[in-house]
Amino acid sequence: MSDSHDNAERLIELLAAQQLGDLSHAEQEELTALADDLDSLPDEILGELLVMFDQYGNDQEQLPSAFAETLTKGGQAAISVRAGNDPISFHDGVAASTSRSSASGPWRWISATAAMIAIGATIFGVSNYTARNQARQQFESKLASLQSKINDNDTLLANSRIAAAQAQESIQSLEAENQLQATQLAQLENTKLELASQLAEATSSLDSAMDRIALYETPLDPAQLAENRRQLLTVPDSVQIAWQPFDLPDAPAEQQGVQGDVIWSDSLQEGYIRFVGLEPNDPNIEQYQIWVIDERGLEQKVSGGVFNASAEGEIIVPIHPGIDVGRVALFAITIENPGGTWVPDLSRRVVVAPRDG
Predict the structure, then answer these.
(1) Interior CA angle at 322 toward 321 and 326, to 5°?
(2) pLDDT tens across 345-354, in order?
(3) What does the pLDDT look like over 264-319, one tens digit per residue?
(4) What is the domain partition of the chain in residue ranges?
(5) CB 328 within 8 A of CB 266
(6) Rounded distance, CA 113 to CA 18, Å?
(7) Which of 19, 87, 113, 150 could be disulfide-bonded to 77 (CB atoms 3.0-4.6 Å)?
(8) What's the pTM value of the predicted model, to 2 decimals?
(9) Whole-angstrom Cα distance, residue 320 to residue 238?
(10) Reduced to 3 states, what is the DSSP secondary structure of residue 273?
């Protein structure tokens, strides 16, 4: 079968050359010999030709370029030669002329083969168009797939840009919120500082406020004060110190002739002062202030409270130190502005009671 296929292929080449007028004498003899050999098996050879044409026509790349060119030209020549003759018809796969006067013998098959060349060329052309059409469809399919991917990528890119913009807005919003929180925190700290300052000021002036409140308090019962003073004298560590004028070498006390004493207990941090001959004062202008000085010295004097002398006669006043004191060394009375002061200038001295030993 392989030899028949080769002979059929060679026969096609020779027939095409004959139709183109390029057949040499030797090739003419070869064509005649091949026709004689193929005359005994026309159906098989034509079948081979049909199979060969179908194979080549379905796969353009398998058809040699030289053979395809020869085949096409041969087919065109065969169609041209047959243009003035009777049409070709097929019976059981064999090409034959419808004219009863057609040639017989090998040339009948040669004519049929020439017709098959034309048919093969047509099949090849149609197959070629079909292949190109399939290639175009495949290209269009790939192009559509690529366009779909591009559209998907565009959508993804757009969504990514939106997400990035939203993220940036979130970051800016968070930064603004953090800035607001930082501002609020700073304001809170400033408020705390202001409140702390007010508290410190209020604490520092607490003793003064208490002294001012004392201006308007109802005086204790003098008899009760006298009894309290008498009982304090019974405490073992209590001391009794007499008043004397608070004179300085170049400045005598503002009041002379004031008498009385101080009763004090270091353990109880309690005491009373008694006066006879102390001049009454106007609380809206001035007040008397008690000073307690312990072993730390005059520079660490502590206010014992403020009081008023409202009438002549004996006056008993309790001592209320602003802080605990140690072993008292000295008591003194000065005249200050209403409410007293934290640091006396000792310009208006009245009496002093130094502790012996």
Answers:
(1) 60
(2) 889 999 999 9
(3) 999 999 999 999 999 999 999 999 999 999 988 877 889 999 999 987 678 999 99
(4) 1-204, 220-354
(5) yes
(6) 12
(7) 19
(8) 0.41
(9) 16
(10) strand
